[in-house]
Predict the structure.
Amino acid sequence: RLGRPGETRQQYVHAVDVTPTLLELIGVDPLAEIAGVPQAPFDGTSFAHTLADPTAPSRHHTQYYEMLGSRALYHDGWKAVV
């Protein structure tokens, strides 16, 4: 189900995509509420579909992030970094 070990993928993914991907792979839906507190939806996009098909198009089209005083915006193959 995870494709061939060692293969490289070209689709864009970000750290926020890992949790939605793992939940999809193990077949668990995210909780809508925990201890009575409504949960916000995940910002990430699952990339599980790319594990079996290295040519599958990316479903993650836009991502903004900040790290160590820098910021960047990724959109459909383009990245602007400040």
Q: What stands out?
A: The chain has two helices and five strands. The helical segments are 18-26, 49-52. Residues 18-26 form the longest helix (9 residues). Residues 5 and 36 are 41 Å apart (CA to CA).
